[in-house]
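Colleagues,

For the teaching module next term, I've prepared a clean inverse folding example: a structure given as C-alpha coordinates, and then the sequence designed for it. I'd like students to try predicting residues themselves before seeing the answer, so please don't circulate the second half yet.
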Protein backbone atom coordinates (compact mmCIF):
# COMPACT_ATOMS: atom_id res chain seq x y z
CA UNK A 1 0.00 0.00 0.00
CA UNK A 2 1.23 3.50 -0.83
CA UNK A 3 2.67 5.24 2.28
CA UNK A 4 0.34 8.25 1.92
CA UNK A 5 -2.76 7.37 -0.06
CA UNK A 6 -4.50 4.80 -2.21
CA UNK A 7 -7.28 7.26 -3.12
CA UNK A 8 -7.94 10.98 -2.99
CA UNK A 9 -10.51 12.53 -0.69
CA UNK A 10 -12.87 13.23 -3.56
CA UNK A 11 -12.72 9.79 -5.11
CA UNK A 12 -14.54 7.30 -2.90
CA UNK A 13 -18.09 6.22 -3.76
CA UNK A 14 -20.59 3.56 -2.71
CA UNK A 15 -18.86 1.10 -5.04
CA UNK A 16 -15.82 1.24 -2.72
CA UNK A 17 -17.74 -0.04 0.33
CA UNK A 18 -15.73 -2.80 2.00
CA UNK A 19 -12.38 -1.64 0.60
CA UNK A 20 -9.46 -0.83 2.89
CA UNK A 21 -8.09 2.54 1.81
CA UNK A 22 -5.49 5.08 2.84
CA UNK A 23 -6.15 8.83 2.66
CA UNK A 24 -4.03 11.89 3.42
CA UNK A 25 -5.18 15.45 3.84
CA UNK A 26 -6.06 18.34 6.12
CA UNK A 27 -8.41 18.29 9.12
CA UNK A 28 -11.17 20.53 7.80
CA UNK A 29 -14.12 20.13 10.16
CA UNK A 30 -14.74 17.98 13.23
CA UNK A 31 -17.78 16.86 15.18
CA UNK A 32 -17.41 15.12 18.54
CA UNK A 33 -20.48 13.03 19.25
CA UNK A 34 -19.12 11.57 22.48
CA UNK A 35 -18.95 7.94 21.42
CA UNK A 36 -17.60 8.79 17.95
CA UNK A 37 -15.42 11.52 16.48
CA UNK A 38 -16.19 12.62 12.91
CA UNK A 39 -13.62 14.56 10.86
CA UNK A 40 -14.00 15.93 7.34
CA UNK A 41 -10.68 15.19 5.67
CA UNK A 42 -9.91 17.59 2.81
CA UNK A 43 -7.37 17.48 0.01
CA UNK A 44 -7.13 19.14 -3.43
CA UNK A 45 -9.76 16.79 -4.84
CA UNK A 46 -12.53 16.93 -2.25
CA UNK A 47 -13.72 15.91 1.21
CA UNK A 48 -14.29 12.52 2.83
CA UNK A 49 -15.87 11.99 6.23
CA UNK A 50 -13.74 9.78 8.46
CA UNK A 51 -14.88 8.19 11.76
CA UNK A 52 -12.81 7.48 14.88
CA UNK A 53 -14.14 4.86 17.32
CA UNK A 54 -13.35 5.38 21.02
CA UNK A 55 -11.82 1.92 21.52
CA UNK A 56 -8.99 2.72 19.11
CA UNK A 57 -5.66 3.46 20.91
CA UNK A 58 -5.25 6.71 18.96
CA UNK A 59 -8.73 8.06 19.78
CA UNK A 60 -7.42 10.52 22.38
CA UNK A 61 -4.78 11.75 19.94
CA UNK A 62 -7.49 12.25 17.31
CA UNK A 63 -9.62 14.32 19.68
CA UNK A 64 -6.73 16.76 20.07
CA UNK A 65 -6.09 17.27 16.35
CA UNK A 66 -6.19 20.95 15.49
CA UNK A 67 -7.89 22.28 12.38
CA UNK A 68 -5.67 22.17 9.25
CA UNK A 69 -3.31 19.59 10.70
CA UNK A 70 -2.13 17.11 8.05
CA UNK A 71 -2.85 13.45 8.74
CA UNK A 72 -2.74 10.06 7.05
CA UNK A 73 -5.38 7.47 7.91
CA UNK A 74 -6.03 3.86 6.94
CA UNK A 75 -9.45 2.32 7.30
CA UNK A 76 -12.45 0.55 5.80
CA UNK A 77 -15.05 2.24 3.60
CA UNK A 78 -18.59 1.77 4.89
CA UNK A 79 -21.96 2.99 3.68
CA UNK A 80 -23.59 5.76 5.64
CA UNK A 81 -26.95 5.23 7.26
CA UNK A 82 -29.70 6.53 4.91
CA UNK A 83 -30.54 9.32 7.37
CA UNK A 84 -26.93 10.55 7.40
CA UNK A 85 -26.28 10.58 3.64
CA UNK A 86 -25.07 14.02 2.50
CA UNK A 87 -26.35 14.64 -1.07
CA UNK A 88 -24.29 17.86 -1.29
CA UNK A 89 -20.99 15.92 -1.19
CA UNK A 90 -19.78 13.63 -4.01
CA UNK A 91 -18.54 11.30 -1.25
CA UNK A 92 -21.69 11.80 0.82
CA UNK A 93 -22.89 8.18 0.66
CA UNK A 94 -19.82 6.72 2.40
CA UNK A 95 -17.43 7.25 5.29
CA UNK A 96 -14.16 5.65 6.35
CA UNK A 97 -13.76 4.00 9.76
CA UNK A 98 -10.18 4.73 10.85
CA UNK A 99 -7.93 1.82 11.89
CA UNK A 100 -4.58 3.66 11.71
CA UNK A 101 -3.64 7.30 12.25
CA UNK A 102 -0.39 9.12 11.46
CA UNK A 103 -0.02 12.85 12.17
CA UNK A 104 2.19 14.25 9.43
CA UNK A 105 2.09 17.87 10.63
CA UNK A 106 0.29 19.40 13.62
CA UNK A 107 -1.02 22.89 12.84
CA UNK A 108 -0.78 25.79 15.25
CA UNK A 109 -3.92 27.85 15.98
CA UNK A 110 -5.08 29.44 12.70
CA UNK A 111 -4.65 33.20 12.08
CA UNK A 112 -7.50 33.20 9.52
CA UNK A 113 -10.60 31.11 8.95
CA UNK A 114 -10.49 28.42 6.27
CA UNK A 115 -13.96 26.85 6.49
CA UNK A 116 -15.60 29.70 4.56
CA UNK A 117 -18.19 30.58 7.16
CA UNK A 118 -16.79 34.09 7.66
CA UNK A 119 -14.54 36.36 5.62
CA UNK A 120 -11.26 37.38 7.26
CA UNK A 121 -9.77 40.88 6.73
CA UNK A 122 -8.03 41.11 3.35
CA UNK A 123 -4.61 42.06 4.73
CA UNK A 124 -4.63 38.92 6.89
CA UNK A 125 -5.80 36.83 3.95
CA UNK A 126 -2.90 38.11 1.84
CA UNK A 127 -0.35 37.68 4.62
CA UNK A 128 -1.43 34.05 5.03
CA UNK A 129 -2.30 33.48 1.39
CA UNK A 130 -1.21 29.83 1.49
CA UNK A 131 -3.97 29.29 4.07
CA UNK A 132 -6.43 31.45 2.19
CA UNK A 133 -5.89 29.31 -0.90
CA UNK A 134 -7.24 26.31 1.01
CA UNK A 135 -10.68 27.94 1.08
CA UNK A 136 -12.97 26.12 -1.33
CA UNK A 137 -14.11 29.10 -3.41
CA UNK A 138 -10.64 30.59 -3.85
CA UNK A 139 -9.14 27.15 -4.51
CA UNK A 140 -11.69 26.60 -7.29
CA UNK A 141 -10.94 30.03 -8.76
CA UNK A 142 -7.25 29.18 -9.11
CA UNK A 143 -8.10 25.80 -10.64
CA UNK A 144 -10.44 27.60 -13.06
CA UNK A 145 -7.60 29.96 -13.98
CA UNK A 146 -5.39 27.00 -14.88
CA UNK A 147 -8.18 25.44 -16.93
CA UNK A 148 -8.79 28.72 -18.78
CA UNK A 149 -5.11 29.13 -19.63
CA UNK A 150 -4.91 25.50 -20.79
CA UNK A 151 -7.98 26.04 -22.99
CA UNK A 152 -6.54 29.25 -24.44
CA UNK A 153 -3.30 27.49 -25.34
CA UNK A 154 -5.15 24.63 -26.97
CA UNK A 155 -7.47 26.91 -28.93
CA UNK A 156 -4.62 29.14 -30.14
CA UNK A 157 -2.53 26.17 -31.26
CA UNK A 158 -5.50 24.62 -33.06
CA UNK A 159 -6.00 27.97 -34.85
CA UNK A 160 -2.48 27.84 -36.27
CA UNK A 161 -0.73 30.14 -33.77
CA UNK A 162 2.72 29.35 -32.36
CA UNK A 163 3.75 30.20 -28.80
CA UNK A 164 7.01 32.10 -28.34
CA UNK A 165 8.54 33.67 -25.23
CA UNK A 166 9.74 37.26 -25.31
CA UNK A 167 12.31 38.97 -23.02
CA UNK A 168 11.51 40.08 -19.49
CA UNK A 169 14.49 42.43 -19.24
CA UNK A 170 14.09 45.09 -21.91
CA UNK A 171 14.34 48.86 -22.41
CA UNK A 172 12.16 51.60 -20.99
CA UNK A 173 9.50 53.10 -23.25
CA UNK A 174 8.36 56.74 -23.21
CA UNK A 175 4.67 55.84 -23.48
CA UNK A 176 2.10 54.01 -21.40
CA UNK A 177 2.20 53.52 -17.63
CA UNK A 178 5.24 53.82 -15.38
CA UNK A 179 7.92 51.20 -15.89
CA UNK A 180 9.45 48.95 -13.27
CA UNK A 181 13.16 49.67 -13.63
CA UNK A 182 15.98 47.20 -12.98
CA UNK A 183 19.46 48.67 -12.41
CA UNK A 184 22.33 47.12 -14.32
CA UNK A 185 25.34 45.94 -12.31
CA UNK A 186 27.75 45.83 -15.26
CA UNK A 187 26.51 49.03 -16.90
CA UNK A 188 26.61 51.67 -14.14
CA UNK A 189 23.83 54.26 -14.31
CA UNK A 190 21.81 52.29 -16.87
CA UNK A 191 18.56 50.42 -16.33
CA UNK A 192 16.53 47.64 -17.82
CA UNK A 193 12.75 47.85 -17.68
CA UNK A 194 10.27 45.05 -17.10
CA UNK A 195 7.93 44.90 -20.13
CA UNK A 196 4.57 46.65 -19.85
CA UNK A 197 3.66 44.33 -22.73
CA UNK A 198 5.65 42.38 -25.35
CA UNK A 199 4.53 44.97 -27.92
CA UNK A 200 7.73 45.58 -29.87
CA UNK A 201 8.94 41.99 -29.63
CA UNK A 202 5.75 40.49 -31.00
CA UNK A 203 5.82 42.91 -33.91
CA UNK A 204 9.44 41.99 -34.55
CA UNK A 205 8.38 38.34 -34.67
CA UNK A 206 6.05 39.27 -37.52
CA UNK A 207 8.92 41.04 -39.31
CA UNK A 208 10.94 37.86 -38.76
CA UNK A 209 8.28 35.95 -40.69
CA UNK A 210 6.60 33.80 -38.02
CA UNK A 211 3.11 34.90 -39.19
CA UNK A 212 0.95 33.89 -36.17
CA UNK A 213 2.26 34.34 -32.62
CA UNK A 214 0.75 34.01 -29.17
CA UNK A 215 1.98 33.95 -25.59
CA UNK A 216 0.47 33.86 -22.11
CA UNK A 217 2.58 36.89 -21.33
CA UNK A 218 3.48 38.41 -17.96
CA UNK A 219 3.29 42.20 -18.07
CA UNK A 220 4.53 44.72 -15.51
CA UNK A 221 3.20 48.21 -14.81
CA UNK A 222 3.87 50.47 -11.86
CA UNK A 223 0.29 51.66 -11.48
CA UNK A 224 -2.32 51.87 -8.75
CA UNK A 225 -4.66 48.99 -8.00
CA UNK A 226 -8.34 48.84 -8.90
CA UNK A 227 -10.96 46.16 -8.47
CA UNK A 228 -10.30 44.97 -12.05
CA UNK A 229 -6.56 45.71 -12.16
CA UNK A 230 -3.82 44.21 -10.06
CA UNK A 231 -0.82 46.41 -9.25
CA UNK A 232 2.59 45.29 -10.40
CA UNK A 233 1.99 42.39 -12.75
CA UNK A 234 -0.75 40.79 -14.80
CA UNK A 235 -1.07 38.22 -17.56
CA UNK A 236 -2.49 38.58 -21.03
CA UNK A 237 -3.11 36.39 -24.06
CA UNK A 238 -0.73 38.21 -26.37
CA UNK A 239 -1.55 37.78 -30.08
CA UNK A 240 -0.05 39.06 -33.34
CA UNK A 241 -0.84 38.13 -36.94
CA UNK A 242 0.70 39.01 -40.32
CA UNK A 243 -1.07 39.97 -43.54
CA UNK A 244 -4.37 40.61 -41.78
CA UNK A 245 -7.09 43.20 -41.72
CA UNK A 246 -9.03 44.29 -38.66
CA UNK A 247 -11.77 41.81 -39.62
CA UNK A 248 -9.26 38.93 -39.63
CA UNK A 249 -8.13 39.77 -36.08
CA UNK A 250 -11.74 39.98 -34.91
CA UNK A 251 -12.62 36.60 -36.43
CA UNK A 252 -9.61 34.88 -34.81
CA UNK A 253 -10.27 36.39 -31.38
CA UNK A 254 -14.02 35.72 -31.48
CA UNK A 255 -13.34 32.09 -32.28
CA UNK A 256 -10.99 31.73 -29.29
CA UNK A 257 -12.66 33.98 -26.68
CA UNK A 258 -16.20 33.14 -27.74
CA UNK A 259 -15.37 29.43 -27.53
CA UNK A 260 -13.64 29.89 -24.16
CA UNK A 261 -16.69 31.56 -22.61
CA UNK A 262 -19.01 28.97 -24.11
CA UNK A 263 -16.83 26.29 -22.46
CA UNK A 264 -16.61 27.75 -18.97
CA UNK A 265 -19.46 30.23 -18.52
CA UNK A 266 -22.46 29.29 -16.45
CA UNK A 267 -24.33 32.12 -18.15
CA UNK A 268 -25.70 32.86 -21.60
CA UNK A 269 -22.95 34.02 -23.98
CA UNK A 270 -23.37 36.29 -27.00
CA UNK A 271 -23.05 34.49 -30.31
CA UNK A 272 -20.36 35.61 -32.72
CA UNK A 273 -19.71 37.88 -34.52
CA UNK A 274 -19.80 40.33 -31.65
CA UNK A 275 -21.48 43.72 -32.02
CA UNK A 276 -19.25 46.54 -33.29
CA UNK A 277 -19.66 50.06 -31.92
CA UNK A 278 -17.62 53.09 -32.92
CA UNK A 279 -15.80 54.95 -30.17
CA UNK A 280 -17.88 58.08 -30.91
CA UNK A 281 -21.18 56.18 -30.66
CA UNK A 282 -20.10 54.42 -27.48
CA UNK A 283 -19.22 57.70 -25.78
CA UNK A 284 -22.57 59.17 -26.86
CA UNK A 285 -24.88 56.24 -26.17
CA UNK A 286 -23.22 54.78 -23.07
CA UNK A 287 -21.00 57.55 -21.69
CA UNK A 288 -17.77 55.55 -21.88
CA UNK A 289 -15.71 53.33 -24.19
CA UNK A 290 -16.45 50.11 -22.29
CA UNK A 291 -20.25 49.86 -22.35
CA UNK A 292 -22.26 47.34 -20.38
CA UNK A 293 -24.74 46.18 -23.01
CA UNK A 294 -26.78 44.29 -20.41
CA UNK A 295 -28.31 47.68 -19.52
CA UNK A 296 -31.24 48.57 -21.84
CA UNK A 297 -30.69 52.35 -21.65
CA UNK A 298 -29.16 54.46 -24.43
CA UNK A 299 -28.17 58.09 -23.90
CA UNK A 300 -29.30 60.66 -26.50
CA UNK A 301 -27.86 64.00 -27.60
CA UNK A 302 -30.53 66.71 -27.27
CA UNK A 303 -28.22 69.72 -27.40
CA UNK A 304 -29.85 71.38 -30.41
CA UNK A 305 -33.33 71.06 -28.96
CA UNK A 306 -32.28 72.91 -25.81
CA UNK A 307 -30.30 75.46 -27.85
CA UNK A 308 -33.69 76.55 -29.19
CA UNK A 309 -35.48 76.33 -25.84
CA UNK A 310 -36.24 78.94 -23.21
CA UNK A 311 -34.23 77.16 -20.53
CA UNK A 312 -31.35 79.61 -20.27
CA UNK A 313 -29.00 77.40 -18.21
CA UNK A 314 -28.86 74.72 -20.93
CA UNK A 315 -29.21 77.17 -23.81
CA UNK A 316 -26.22 79.28 -22.77
CA UNK A 317 -24.15 76.16 -21.99
CA UNK A 318 -24.72 74.82 -25.51
CA UNK A 319 -23.88 78.21 -26.99
CA UNK A 320 -20.60 78.08 -25.06
CA UNK A 321 -19.62 74.69 -26.49
CA UNK A 322 -21.39 72.42 -24.00
CA UNK A 323 -23.79 69.59 -24.70
CA UNK A 324 -27.01 68.21 -23.21
CA UNK A 325 -27.35 64.46 -22.78
CA UNK A 326 -30.72 62.76 -22.20
CA UNK A 327 -31.07 59.47 -20.30
CA UNK A 328 -34.48 57.91 -21.05
CA UNK A 329 -35.81 55.42 -18.48
CA UNK A 330 -38.93 53.28 -18.83
CA UNK A 331 -41.62 52.84 -16.18
CA UNK A 332 -40.49 55.17 -13.40
CA UNK A 333 -43.31 57.72 -13.38
CA UNK A 334 -44.88 56.09 -10.35
CA UNK A 335 -41.67 56.16 -8.32
CA UNK A 336 -41.78 58.28 -5.14
CA UNK A 337 -40.16 61.69 -5.05
CA UNK A 338 -37.34 60.24 -2.94
CA UNK A 339 -36.22 58.14 -5.94
CA UNK A 340 -35.65 61.28 -8.02
CA UNK A 341 -34.12 63.20 -5.11
CA UNK A 342 -31.57 60.42 -4.49
CA UNK A 343 -30.56 60.43 -8.15
CA UNK A 344 -30.06 64.19 -8.03
CA UNK A 345 -27.94 63.74 -4.91
CA UNK A 346 -25.91 61.01 -6.64
CA UNK A 347 -25.33 63.22 -9.69
CA UNK A 348 -24.10 66.06 -7.52
CA UNK A 349 -21.81 63.64 -5.69
CA UNK A 350 -20.03 62.69 -8.93
CA UNK A 351 -19.51 66.28 -10.02
CA UNK A 352 -22.69 67.34 -11.80
CA UNK A 353 -24.24 70.72 -11.02
CA UNK A 354 -27.56 68.92 -10.79
CA UNK A 355 -29.86 66.49 -12.59
CA UNK A 356 -32.91 67.81 -14.39
CA UNK A 357 -35.72 65.45 -15.38
CA UNK A 358 -39.12 65.19 -17.04
CA UNK A 359 -41.80 62.60 -16.24
CA UNK A 360 -44.62 61.64 -18.62
CA UNK A 361 -47.86 60.93 -16.72
CA UNK A 362 -51.30 60.20 -18.20
CA UNK A 363 -52.33 63.78 -17.44
CA UNK A 364 -49.26 65.86 -18.25
CA UNK A 365 -45.48 66.16 -18.37
CA UNK A 366 -44.02 66.96 -14.96
CA UNK A 367 -40.61 68.09 -13.86
CA UNK A 368 -38.48 71.20 -13.32
CA UNK A 369 -37.91 71.70 -17.07
CA UNK A 370 -41.50 71.31 -18.27
CA UNK A 371 -42.41 74.99 -18.05
CA UNK A 372 -39.43 75.98 -20.23
CA UNK A 373 -40.32 73.73 -23.17
CA UNK A 374 -43.03 74.21 -25.78
CA UNK A 375 -45.51 71.37 -26.47
CA UNK A 376 -43.82 70.63 -29.80
CA UNK A 377 -40.40 70.44 -28.07
CA UNK A 378 -41.77 68.04 -25.48
CA UNK A 379 -43.19 65.93 -28.29
CA UNK A 380 -39.83 66.00 -30.09
CA UNK A 381 -38.08 64.86 -26.90
CA UNK A 382 -40.61 62.08 -26.49
CA UNK A 383 -40.03 60.86 -30.05
CA UNK A 384 -36.25 61.30 -30.06
CA UNK A 385 -35.81 59.43 -26.77
CA UNK A 386 -38.44 56.77 -27.40
CA UNK A 387 -40.44 57.40 -24.23
CA UNK A 388 -44.15 57.35 -23.47
CA UNK A 389 -46.65 57.53 -20.65
CA UNK A 390 -45.06 56.27 -17.42
CA UNK A 391 -41.48 57.01 -18.53
CA UNK A 392 -38.95 59.68 -17.61
CA UNK A 393 -35.92 61.43 -19.09
CA UNK A 394 -32.97 62.66 -17.01
CA UNK A 395 -30.71 65.41 -18.35
CA UNK A 396 -27.02 66.23 -17.91
CA UNK A 397 -25.43 69.42 -19.24
CA UNK A 398 -21.67 70.04 -19.34
CA UNK A 399 -18.68 70.05 -21.66
CA UNK A 400 -18.70 67.06 -24.03
CA UNK A 401 -16.30 64.75 -22.17
CA UNK A 402 -17.63 65.63 -18.73
CA UNK A 403 -21.24 65.19 -19.84
CA UNK A 404 -20.43 61.77 -21.30
CA UNK A 405 -18.82 60.60 -18.07
CA UNK A 406 -21.65 61.92 -15.88
CA UNK A 407 -24.39 60.49 -18.07
CA UNK A 408 -22.61 57.14 -18.23
CA UNK A 409 -22.32 56.87 -14.45
CA UNK A 410 -25.95 57.91 -13.95
CA UNK A 411 -27.05 55.34 -16.56
CA UNK A 412 -25.33 52.56 -14.60
CA UNK A 413 -26.66 53.86 -11.27
CA UNK A 414 -30.25 53.90 -12.53
CA UNK A 415 -29.91 50.40 -14.00
CA UNK A 416 -28.62 48.97 -10.73
CA UNK A 417 -31.21 50.78 -8.61
CA UNK A 418 -34.05 49.54 -10.82
CA UNK A 419 -32.55 46.05 -11.29
CA UNK A 420 -32.42 46.54 -15.06
CA UNK A 421 -29.07 44.79 -15.64
CA UNK A 422 -29.77 41.65 -17.66
CA UNK A 423 -28.84 38.69 -15.39
CA UNK A 424 -26.81 35.59 -16.18
CA UNK A 425 -25.48 36.94 -19.47
CA UNK A 426 -22.13 37.79 -21.03
CA UNK A 427 -22.59 40.60 -23.58
CA UNK A 428 -19.59 41.31 -25.81
CA UNK A 429 -18.83 44.16 -28.17
CA UNK A 430 -15.97 45.60 -30.18
CA UNK A 431 -15.23 49.30 -29.78
CA UNK A 432 -13.63 50.53 -33.02
CA UNK A 433 -12.34 53.73 -34.64
CA UNK A 434 -10.54 55.17 -31.63
CA UNK A 435 -9.05 58.64 -32.05
CA UNK A 436 -5.37 58.46 -32.93
CA UNK A 437 -4.58 61.51 -30.79
CA UNK A 438 -6.04 63.44 -27.88
CA UNK A 439 -5.41 66.83 -26.31
CA UNK A 440 -3.21 66.64 -23.21
CA UNK A 441 -4.62 69.44 -21.09
CA UNK A 442 -1.91 69.17 -18.44
CA UNK A 443 0.98 69.58 -20.88
CA UNK A 444 -0.99 71.59 -23.48
CA UNK A 445 -0.04 69.37 -26.40
CA UNK A 446 -1.19 66.65 -28.76
CA UNK A 447 -0.61 63.14 -27.37
CA UNK A 448 -1.27 59.58 -28.47
CA UNK A 449 -4.65 58.51 -27.15
CA UNK A 450 -4.17 54.75 -27.31
CA UNK A 451 -1.29 52.83 -28.90
CA UNK A 452 1.46 54.82 -30.65
CA UNK A 453 2.26 51.91 -32.96
CA UNK A 454 -1.20 51.88 -34.57
CA UNK A 455 -1.83 52.62 -38.22
CA UNK A 456 -3.73 55.90 -38.66
CA UNK A 457 -6.80 55.59 -40.85
CA UNK A 458 -5.90 57.36 -44.06
CA UNK A 459 -2.18 56.75 -43.59
CA UNK A 460 0.31 59.48 -44.46
CA UNK A 461 -2.30 61.61 -46.22
CA UNK A 462 -4.37 61.89 -43.06
CA UNK A 463 -1.30 62.83 -40.99
CA UNK A 464 -0.34 65.49 -43.52
CA UNK A 465 -3.74 67.05 -44.21
CA UNK A 466 -6.16 66.47 -41.29
CA UNK A 467 -6.53 68.01 -37.87
CA UNK A 468 -4.78 65.45 -35.61
CA UNK A 469 -7.78 65.36 -33.27
CA UNK A 470 -9.95 64.24 -36.20
CA UNK A 471 -7.77 61.30 -37.21
CA UNK A 472 -8.99 57.85 -36.23
CA UNK A 473 -6.75 54.81 -35.93
CA UNK A 474 -7.20 51.13 -36.66
CA UNK A 475 -7.48 50.55 -32.92
CA UNK A 476 -10.05 48.44 -31.15
CA UNK A 477 -11.08 47.16 -27.74
CA UNK A 478 -12.96 44.01 -26.77
CA UNK A 479 -15.47 44.67 -23.97
CA UNK A 480 -17.60 42.27 -21.93
CA UNK A 481 -20.27 43.40 -19.42
CA UNK A 482 -18.64 46.80 -19.06
CA UNK A 483 -15.15 45.34 -18.51
CA UNK A 484 -12.40 46.06 -21.03
CA UNK A 485 -10.87 42.68 -21.82
CA UNK A 486 -8.29 43.79 -24.34
CA UNK A 487 -6.92 46.46 -26.63
CA UNK A 488 -5.41 45.95 -30.03
CA UNK A 489 -4.63 47.52 -33.37
CA UNK A 490 -3.54 47.11 -36.94
CA UNK A 491 0.07 48.25 -36.69
CA UNK A 492 1.91 51.05 -38.41
CA UNK A 493 4.57 49.08 -40.31
CA UNK A 494 5.77 51.83 -42.66
CA UNK A 495 8.77 53.83 -41.32
CA UNK A 496 7.82 57.12 -42.99
CA UNK A 497 4.31 57.00 -41.52
CA UNK A 498 5.69 56.08 -38.09
CA UNK A 499 8.13 58.99 -38.06
CA UNK A 500 5.30 61.35 -39.03
CA UNK A 501 2.89 59.90 -36.46
CA UNK A 502 5.41 60.46 -33.68
CA UNK A 503 6.24 63.92 -35.00
CA UNK A 504 2.60 64.94 -34.61
CA UNK A 505 2.80 63.82 -30.95
CA UNK A 506 5.96 65.89 -30.39
CA UNK A 507 8.63 63.22 -30.81
CA UNK A 508 11.44 63.90 -33.26
CA UNK A 509 13.00 61.17 -35.43
CA UNK A 510 15.94 60.94 -33.03
CA UNK A 511 13.53 59.89 -30.25
CA UNK A 512 12.00 57.20 -32.44
CA UNK A 513 15.46 55.95 -33.43
CA UNK A 514 16.68 55.93 -29.83
CA UNK A 515 13.61 54.49 -28.10
CA UNK A 516 12.29 52.21 -30.83
CA UNK A 517 15.44 51.65 -32.85
CA UNK A 518 15.07 47.88 -32.98
CA UNK A 519 11.59 48.08 -34.45
CA UNK A 520 12.05 51.03 -36.83
CA UNK A 521 15.25 49.49 -38.25
CA UNK A 522 13.40 46.22 -38.76
CA UNK A 523 10.61 47.98 -40.63
CA UNK A 524 13.20 49.44 -43.00
CA UNK A 525 14.18 45.91 -44.01
CA UNK A 526 10.79 44.59 -45.09
CA UNK A 527 7.83 44.46 -42.72
CA UNK A 528 4.49 42.75 -43.46
CA UNK A 529 1.18 44.45 -42.68
CA UNK A 530 0.27 43.06 -39.27
CA UNK A 531 -2.03 43.49 -36.30
CA UNK A 532 -2.83 42.03 -32.94
CA UNK A 533 -4.52 42.22 -29.59
CA UNK A 534 -3.98 41.10 -25.99
CA UNK A 535 -7.00 39.93 -23.94
CA UNK A 536 -6.37 40.04 -20.20
CA UNK A 537 -6.27 36.57 -18.65
CA UNK A 538 -6.93 37.85 -15.12
CA UNK A 539 -10.04 39.76 -16.20
CA UNK A 540 -11.45 36.88 -18.21
CA UNK A 541 -11.08 34.53 -15.25
CA UNK A 542 -12.60 37.19 -12.95
CA UNK A 543 -15.71 37.33 -15.14
CA UNK A 544 -15.98 33.56 -15.49
CA UNK A 545 -15.56 33.09 -11.73
CA UNK A 546 -18.22 35.76 -11.12
CA UNK A 547 -15.84 37.74 -8.89
CA UNK A 548 -15.85 41.52 -8.52
CA UNK A 549 -12.23 41.76 -7.35
CA UNK A 550 -9.35 40.56 -9.52
CA UNK A 551 -7.31 39.49 -6.47
CA UNK A 552 -9.77 36.62 -6.00
CA UNK A 553 -8.47 34.89 -9.17
CA UNK A 554 -4.72 35.41 -8.65
CA UNK A 555 -2.83 32.92 -6.50
CA UNK A 556 -0.44 35.39 -4.88
CA UNK A 557 -1.61 38.98 -5.52
CA UNK A 558 -0.27 42.17 -4.03
CA UNK A 559 -2.49 44.41 -1.92
CA UNK A 560 -3.77 47.80 -3.04
CA UNK A 561 -0.47 49.40 -1.98
CA UNK A 562 1.50 47.06 -4.28
CA UNK A 563 2.87 45.10 -1.32
CA UNK A 564 3.31 41.36 -0.99
CA UNK A 565 2.49 40.96 2.70
CA UNK A 566 3.39 37.27 2.71
CA UNK A 567 6.92 37.67 1.26
CA UNK A 568 7.48 41.20 2.62
CA UNK A 569 8.03 42.77 -0.79
CA UNK A 570 9.16 45.34 -1.62
CA UNK A 571 11.86 44.93 1.00
CA UNK A 572 15.19 46.35 1.98
CA UNK A 573 18.44 45.11 0.46
CA UNK A 574 21.94 45.14 1.84
CA UNK A 575 24.50 47.89 1.37
CA UNK A 576 26.66 45.39 -0.51
CA UNK A 577 23.88 44.83 -3.07
CA UNK A 578 23.38 48.57 -3.48
CA UNK A 579 27.09 49.14 -4.02
CA UNK A 580 27.16 46.41 -6.69
CA UNK A 581 24.35 48.24 -8.49
CA UNK A 582 26.02 51.65 -8.05
CA UNK A 583 22.99 52.93 -6.12
CA UNK A 584 22.99 55.29 -3.16
CA UNK A 585 19.79 55.88 -1.19
CA UNK A 586 19.25 59.36 0.19
CA UNK A 587 19.20 59.13 4.03
CA UNK A 588 16.23 61.49 4.02
CA UNK A 589 14.21 58.88 2.14
CA UNK A 590 15.08 56.21 4.72
CA UNK A 591 14.20 58.59 7.56
CA UNK A 592 10.83 59.36 5.96
CA UNK A 593 10.10 55.63 5.58
CA UNK A 594 10.90 54.90 9.21
CA UNK A 595 8.54 57.68 10.29
CA UNK A 596 5.82 56.55 7.91
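(Answer key — instructors only)
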Amino acid sequence: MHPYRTHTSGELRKSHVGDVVRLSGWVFRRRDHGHFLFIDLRDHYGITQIVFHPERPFFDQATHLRYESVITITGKVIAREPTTVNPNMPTGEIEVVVDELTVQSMAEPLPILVDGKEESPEDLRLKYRFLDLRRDKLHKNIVLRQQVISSLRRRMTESGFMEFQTPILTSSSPEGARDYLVPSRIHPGRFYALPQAPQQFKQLLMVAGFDRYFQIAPCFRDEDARADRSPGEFYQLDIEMSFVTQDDVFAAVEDVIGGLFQEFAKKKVDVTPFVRITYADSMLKYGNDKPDLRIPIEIRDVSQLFAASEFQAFKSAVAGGGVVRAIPVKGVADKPRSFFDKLVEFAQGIGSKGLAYLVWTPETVKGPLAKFLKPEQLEELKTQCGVGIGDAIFFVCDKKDAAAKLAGLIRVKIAKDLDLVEPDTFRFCWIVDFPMYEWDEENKCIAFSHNPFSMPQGGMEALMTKNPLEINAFQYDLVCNGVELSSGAIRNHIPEIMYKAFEVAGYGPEVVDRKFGGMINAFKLGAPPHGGIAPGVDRMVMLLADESNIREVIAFPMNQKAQDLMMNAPGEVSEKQLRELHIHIDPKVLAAQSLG
